[in-house]
Amino acid sequence: MSAVNCYVTHLESPIDGTRFAPGLIHGTHLGRPLVVEYDLPGIRAATSPEDWRTRQPGMWRYSELLPLPFDQEVVSLGETATPLLACPRLGKTLGVPRLVIKDESLLPTGSFKSRGMSVAVSMARYLGLKRLAAPTAGNAGGALAAYCARAGLEAFVFMPEDTPVVNRLETVLYGAKAFLVNGLIHECGALVRENAAEFQWFDMSTLREPYRLEGKKTMGLELADQRDWTLPDVILYPTGGGTGLVGMAKAFTELRNLCWLRNETMPRFYACQSSGCTPLVNAWNAGTRHAETVNNAATRASGLRVPGAVGDFMILDAVRQSNGAVIAGDEARIDYQMRRACALEGVPLCPETAVCLEVLEGLVRNGAVGDHEDVLVWNTGAAQKYVECMEHPMQQIDKHKPLVDQLEVASRPRK
Q: What is the pLDDT of residues 90-106, one digit of tens each?
């Protein structure tokens, strides 16, 4: 099968530069990811940002910078452009009054995973794959299940036993064959790889196929589009497998090479991890390009519980090139940051994003981020998908007693 009617030129290994033909089934090379490359001069001659603006909002308006041939049907659940929400009260509390949150919770499966799976499953169907499998510690399993259901493909999902309950239930609801594993996500991933030949499924793990990255890239394309082709000074991103951060960096590079960005400098990336799982932080602090797998990883932010990322060097390279940093937020403060942000702004912040707020507070305190800067934080998923983090004791009311005698003092209006 040959790729036609799109601008993909080849796939390339960032490890050694080996090139691969498009339109074929590809996984990894030397155990590391492959990246899709495009004919940028051809794209610039054929279209423009103004052309994109005439199309329906959403990730598929950027079709020239996506790998699916134009004559192929998209596997879609109605992905929309997600809002940029100014958060002045939260920003004032954190010391960055120009704080904005981009809220991915409004995507079809309640998280940014919809972007990657829409493109990856579209490509899988185009390439003739019938059976897809992936490990998950959170939202990826439900997204794979939903998009496979939409495409008429089989989905197999392997997840740690303590995966959040909503993530477990939605995976089954969408018809996937779902399994709980007595291990962490990297051990679930090993089961997928080791049994691929026996069960004839294709491995859709993070960065072990090349097209989820292209879907996540639309985060960066859409952000630039919404800001009239300018970018913020600072971006904080919750980083487990890191596809979103690598995808954004790829998007910004492609837009810059197309000469469509107005910025003279690129945003500083701050990759945020929980103190309960810090492989990238450890590598950053050690100055290495690859991360060692951490043992006994544990965090309430399940999407950050990735003890070892196959794209570690791509994440670290992107952060270094941006003059940013990889930083851990205190695991013990996740619930506090999550509740404060939700209460101040009404944005359904997930625990992974709460880690970003904890990191941001430290960056402001030590002067690394100034109060004059445009700061953007990604909310990668809906709070409602983490009911374990939402549980909180409530005051009991006796309907037979006067309410005025029962309400806490703080609840009463001031006279």
A: 999 999 999 999 999 99
